[in-house]
Amino acid sequence: MAKKKLAVSHAGSQGVFSLVEQDLLKQLDSHHTELMYGHKSYRVNIDIVSHPFEVAMGKMDEKPTNQIMLHIFWTDAETEAYRGHVKDQLTVWFEKLAKHSCSNYLVIHATFQDKSAILHKFSVTRTSMTERIRNDFGSHRADKTITFKAESNNIASSQSWLIAVSKIRDSIIRSVTLKLSSLEKNVNLIRDSHEEEDFSLFRYIEAKENLTLLYELTGLYEEGYRSGEEVLSLFRQYVFNLRQCQIVPWIEDFIEKDITNWSGLSLSSDISIKDLAPQQVNSIQLCSLIFRRIAHQLIALQNPRDLAKKGLSFLLQTVQECAILKAKYPRGALVVWVYIACIEILEAVKRSSPLNNMDVPEALAVAKGQLYNLAREKLYELGTLAGHVGDDSEQVGERKEQGGGADTVLSGESCSVLSEEEIDVLVEGSKPFSASSSSSSSLPSLGSSITADLFKLLTDKSFFHKQYIDLCQLSIVSFKQGLWNHHAQMIMMRQALYLRHRGLQSECLNAETHLRDVCHAYSTQGWHRLATYTRVKLCDTQRHLGLLDRELATCCHLSTEAEHITLTDRQTYSQRLVECVGLFNTEKG
User: Fold this and answer.
1) β partners of residue 106
2) Any idea what DSSP says for residue 12?
3) Spatial distance between the Cα atoms of 37 and 291, rounded to a whole number of angstroms
4) Phi, psi angles (nearest 5°) of residue 150
5) Distance CA 126, CA 245 (A)
6) 34-71 b/e (C-beta count within 10 Å ≥ 16 → b)
7) Cα–Cα distance between 579 and 535 in angstroms, integer?
8) Is the pTM of this model over 0.70?
9) Percentage of the chain with pLDDT > 90?
10) How many whole angstroms separate alpha carbon 185 and alpha carbon 180?
């Protein structure tokens, strides 16, 4: 998404404006300006785009952030030209400004020492432009008239030009401050009525969007982030209040709503609340829209760690909300949504990381590892639905206690293999939501590739296997970088169990190696319960492979384990130990 800029308009002499335009843009953007907002002072750069006045008037009826912050009339007219046509132009200009109640304007008169740069040459004036405007349009106009002198080929060296730029900068800041105050006042008025029957959540979000967009235009990304958080918190507060049967009228619109699109977060789009039909919006669409705005602020702040952490908690909480609101959706749809959203957030994290990132590497690595792991879990659930892997209760439902119970797989409902019709429905619903007014972002659109990959994941077992192993490895690497070795070992064990269930000899050998490494690590670190659990799986794998000598050693450990294994199981492994010894002696004999 191209960087948005504050808009100003230009009228009058196009020759003068063309001569000063580049230096004006450079001067405004290269100097920090103090912006007082609320009780804080911000240092901002003024980045503007100038539209012709007639074009700018067409934008006055659009959303507030498209309104013009400052109107400027440029002229180099002397006495004859002023009397001839410039006065009439100013009269029409002032009338149009008054019609739209615009008080943020400037009239800038340029006097060039070498007139060769201007097509029309006039004699030196005896009466200043300020005096003429005072005489013709009233004294209050004179305060907004500026005159500067410069050489047309060296504008930047003129002290009066720098003063004029400073006046333009101050006028823009004043206009922005007034607009921010106006938008914030409107937001507060709507928010204060959130418990009333006629409260409109969509009107509140639209007001917040307008305020957040203006924050983006002025570079106040932290304020934009907080603004998005406030909207998300308000919605979630009333969703979770449903558990105590505290219902406000507007929250009823989201109860038992059909979810027809699960294409992730669409971080590459710039869809607004205006692009959604209020009667059809469900909780996932609404929360995704709010989080998208939050993510854009964190990307602009180059804060990948908070983006990853916020993204993870957002996904888990949104799944919980779907359960509370009793949302309706096809089997596996919520799993697909979380999986695609994880991939999108990870891509955004990668692109938002600054080259000279001073963030703590461990914290960022852990946050990425958690996202990779969540994507791995959802991919395994998709594999279960597609029939690529067995319904392994050790892996499916790992996050049931964290809110995953909203989905059919996680809630313990039927995990039968998806039919071709169900697969087609999942693939169709994963296509990105599009709106006519949406625009592309600096982030790549993952929609088409994700949709194609989803179909292959559900129908191609080898493709699923490759994706699952890749996610396992990415999770392990990230957790190790973040020094979360315990979590890395957990993923290694999951990967080993998956390979063992695949049944291929080479993969079972790899699984046995992984399990031995994990078991040794757990024992060394004092995680004895986990070490025992892993040793049980290791023993089963060694028995499957016929590794008698290794199984003998493992059974010896398990038969003497007194704390983390039942008496019955110890007796079973003792009996198996005797059998292994007999088989081992038979082979040696």
Assistant:
1) 72
2) E
3) 24
4) -165, 165
5) 79
6) ebebeeeebebebebebbebeebbeeeeeeebbbbbbb
7) 18
8) yes
9) 28
10) 8
Asked if 173 contacts 33 with a C-beta cutoff of 8 angstroms, the reply is yes
In sequence order, the 6+-apart residues with CB closer than 8 A to the CB of 478 are 365, 366, 368, 369, 372
Lookup result for tokens 């007082």: 36
DSSP state of 82: I
pLDDT at 71 over 60: yes
d(CA 364, CA 295): 16
DSSP designation for 328: B
Residue 575, token pair as written in the block: 């009996």
Q: What is the DSSP letter of 151?
A: B
Q: Decide which of 407 and 6 is more confident.
A: 6
Number of Cβ within 10 Å of residue 178's Cβ equals: 13
End-to-end CA distance of the chain: 75
Secondary-structure breakdown of the chain: helix, strand, coil percentages, each rounded to the nearest 5: 65, 10, 30
Q: Per residue in 473-529, pLDDT tens?
A: 999 999 999 988 888 988 988 888 888 888 777 888 888 888 888 888 888 888 888
- Letter for the amino acid at 159? Q
Whether the CB-CB separation of 257 and 282 falls below 8 Å is answered with: yes
